Amino acid sequence: MPRDTLTGSRIRERRTILGLKQADLAREAGISASYLNLIEHNRRRIGGKLLLDLAEILKVEPSMLTEGAEAALIASLREAASTTRGSTAELDRVDEFAGRFPGWARLLAEARGRIETLERSVETLSDRLAHDPQLAEALHEMLSTVTAIRSAASILNEPEEIDPDWQRRFHRNIHEDSARLAESSRSLVSYLEAEGKAASESGTPQEEVTAIFEGEGYHFPALEAGQAPEALAAELEADLSDNARALLLRALRTYAEDAAALPLAAVLEAVAAEGADPLALVRRLGCDPARAMRRLAALPAGAPCGPVGLAVCDASGALTFRKPLPEFPVPRFGADCPLWPLFPALSRPMTVLSRRVQFAGRQGGAVRAFAVAQPASLPQANRDPIFEAHMMFTPEGSARGGEETEQVGVTCRICARSGCPARREPSLLGDVAERGP
Question: In this protein, which residues make up the domain named HTH cro/C1-type (predicted)?
Fold first, then answer.
């Protein structure tokens, strides 16, 4: 059952939340209660003026009734099925499942997320065992101490008599080595607990920082008011690993620099006049496009431009920052769609790309995306710059006159686009024909 056939269920759910009786809603919409009953049970299609009237009465956007807010949830469920070996999940009915049983769907998605986190923790610990110099040194120290104790004990265990002075020396050595071994063991346990606590919860330092930004709504009033990023980092970094602390401080310094260059009041004034257009912000305030995108994505929740998403990648294509939207989910772990404007921007440095993009196989849910690649550091003589790409995206309704909508995916494994020239692997959804916007 496609998402657009669940419109009635969403109408019934929204009516129940508002405490409206079916008869009252039908009367306000100018239809009979029996007809509304058929709509709410998904036995009648709905669209046009009636959909707009019902959306206005229920105080929601029409797209919330036709598309719902479960786009990211559905993507998570599909990703869970794609990464489970031997999965027999009915992918063609995942939309129906998420629409009819949102609680169970969220539970499964969260459980899969937890499994991924644990898997990442195992990978992180395995990598540390192989490459962490401090851990390797601690293990070497413990093994050396154990070897010394064993050697001294084996000498004392010899049947031949040992001079009392040498015997006392061996006993003293065993005592001192045992004390050193105990101290090394305690230090190693403390190190593993301190370093592993945050990793066990979020997997990687980058995810730890992302969790901080998500918790703050990607907006930091203290930095807008001029607080030093070092002071704010000290307040937020209590449970972070050392690597995550370094990444958080760098991200907060960038935020503070952006806030100082483009004050919040000036940005909100520009947004109220011209909407979430980074090029309009560039013209008004004389900043570079990447900074304009970061500022728009850092606006408070009540900003007049509505929600703004952001993705940033380095020259290798690895995501270094992610702020997804329901209309545009961003995978947690790589393997993103190469057709996103974010990646073509790397091959056209300093050129701002503007595209209307939509996930293949979905009705509605298109976004306006702006992307640009700029040098990540100051220029140096005789050295090529290293570029960093930014992509900002906002929900968009109908296409602008004659403009085409680019069909993209989340990842190849769960992408419904057929005949895609950028496909890396077959889709679990099968050979699904492309659908227009």
Answer: 11-65
- Distant-in-sequence, close-in-space partners of 15: CB < 8 Å, separation ≥ 6: 22, 25, 40, 58
CA 240-242-244 angle, 5° bins: 55
Task: List the one residue out of 333, 345, 348 whose CA is nearest residue 410.
Answer: 333
Distance of alpha carbon 331 from alpha carbon 288, whole angstroms: 27
**Tens digit of each residue's pLDDT (9 = 90 or more) over 89-103:** 777 677 667 767 777
Average pLDDT over residues 69-87: 68
How many whole angstroms separate alpha carbon 13 and alpha carbon 6? Answer: 11
Q: What share of the chain is helix, strand, coil (3-state, %, to 5)?
A: 55, 10, 35
Residues with Cβ < 8 Å from 48, sequence gap 6 or more?
none
Statement: the pTM of the whole predicted model exceeds 0.85: no
CB 417 within 8 A of CB 409: yes
Q: Which residues contact 319 (CB under 8 A, 6 or more apart)?
A: 311, 312, 313, 330, 334, 336
Query: What does residue 406 show for φ and ψ, rounded to 5 degrees?
Result: -75, 125
Cβ pair 173, 150 in contact under 8 A:
no
The conformation of residue 219, written as its DSSP 8-state character, comes to -
Which of 94, 5, 96, 100 has its CA nearest to residue 43? 5
**Strongest mean pLDDT among 88-102, 145-159, 186-200, 355-369:** 145-159
Distance CA 258, CA 287 (A): 10
For residues 187-208, b (16+ Cβ closer than 10 Å) or e, as one string?
Answer: ebeeeeeebeebbbebbbbbbb
Selected residue with higher pLDDT from 141 and 83: 141
Residue type, 90: E
Which pLDDT tens digit goes with each residue over 355-412? Answer: 999 887 666 678 999 999 999 888 889 898 999 999 999 988 666 767 788 888 887 8
